[in-house]
Amino acid sequence: MPARTLGLVCMIVIAVCVAAQAPSSDQLNQPHIQPPPAPAPRAETPARVAPLPPVGEDMHADLQRMRSLLAQMRTNLAFVQTTQTPLKHQFELECDMWQVVITDMERRLNATSSPPEQK
What we know:
Helix content is 65%, strand content 0%. It contains four helices and no strands.
């Protein structure tokens, strides 16, 4: 008799556990939505930023590299077939855009490198 009682108690405990874990009917109709994760705590110590190198030297090197890359883009553009007109037009627009960026950088570099005019 004690084995039957022990078996019955085990079955009741298992049934209660399964029933507790099973979703209710109203939970089945609603999608499972997780709340957004809490933001990570920020570090209290300020980040140290390395000082920037002199503008002139790096800017000249960057401009030279950009001019070289733009020349390569224009060379590659010559090999795009004319039957791919939208693609070729996109490449032309990108080359024009980079030319504007290079011209703007040159203008800024010249403005910072030339001494201010005195009256």
